[in-house]
Amino acid sequence: MRLLRHAIILGLSGSAIISCRPRSQSLAKLQDLLDASIVAPGKIGDALVLGDTDLTGNRNVAAGMPAIASKNIASPTDLYLSREQFVVSFDSAAKVPAWTSWQVVNTDLGTTERQNDFRSDEILNRYLEVKIRNLGVTPDDYRETCFDRGHQAPSADRTSSVRANTATFYMSNMAPQTAFLNRVIWKDLEEYSRELVRKQGRKLQIYAGSILRNGREGIGPNKEIQVPEAFYKVIEVYEDDDARKPMGYIAVIMPNATADGLDPLAEKTIACQEQEKNSKGRLPKKWQDYRVDLHDIQQKAGVSFPKLADVSSYNR
Q1: Is the peptide bond before 41 cis (omega within 30 degrees of 0)?
Q2: Which of 160, 209, 220, 297 is most enclosed, with most CB atoms within 10 A?
Q3: Which domains, ranges and CATH numbers included, belong to the chain?
């Protein structure tokens, strides 16, 4: 493992750094960060694995990771962030998660209040700066853009402790979402999911991902954070904590649009108004209206879920 860490760090050290600090000082800081965060297996293909939890034993991917079904559509993964609370497959070109994976059981749902401490993920930011000469992602990048900092793994799915909840506020867990998506239909499904756990004792394995389109405008200081045109979510529902095979799945694709179905990049004034005060609009408010088949996610997002090939849709 020590040799693997050194090999990865040496590979990064050949890249230039965007920083006013001396090159040796920046590299030393990066090496310290990576030394403390590289976890086995260290790399998957060409992508690094960083974080605080061994990916091979991380419960948040115990059911496997999404498979690439079409390289022409799926977001490329440069980096996996393996944390105790979730796993992120990060697209450093788009500067948003390609997908995020997490598990929810009853012990994840406690009484801890929402911490609301949005903050940069320093490991991710140093990687972006050194590896691809790119600025990191900060909470201020979303300021005055009329997009919410949209959680992928929700804050309310990690309320067992302050530590668990605060981890969901890393910017590596965020993507630009309209107020209608984030606060209405996305939220509606999140709340239903937690009810399955609380009231029915189910275990959930959840995947949320971005559907990106080339050439779409971005946000941030240099417009480098791409705005997904839609998001998908796949929820595997297990009978209880000990079950190995899911009872069924829920799959949705939700538009990253205003309440009237408008493109927020083209209709920024309306998007801003909705962010200040939610609009009723004409799009359905219930998550059930956005259900799709797994094949639809494969076509539009370029990812598949092979382990669900013989599993039916969950309709209880």
Answers
A1: yes
A2: 209
A3: 52-120+131-308 (3.40.570.10)
| Dist CA 159 CA 171 (whole Å) | 18
Contact 153, 168 (CB under 8 A): yes
Closest CA to 96 of 126, 137, 60, 140: 137
Q: Give how far the C-alpha of residue 294 lies from the chain's centroid of Cα atoms, to the nearest Å.
A: 19
pTM, 2 dp: 0.88
Q: Could you tell me the end-to-end alpha-carbon distance of the chain, in angstroms, rounded to an integer?
A: 46
Please report the beta strands in the chain, taking only residues with DSSP state E, as ranges in sequence order. 38-44, 47-51, 67-68, 79-82, 87-91, 96-104, 148-151, 174-177, 203-211, 218-219, 225-226, 230-238, 248-255, 303-304
Enter the tokens of residue 241.
């904590």
What's the pLDDT tens digit per position in 35-74?
Answer: 555 555 678 888 889 888 889 889 999 999 999 998 878 8
Cα maximum dimension of the chain: 59
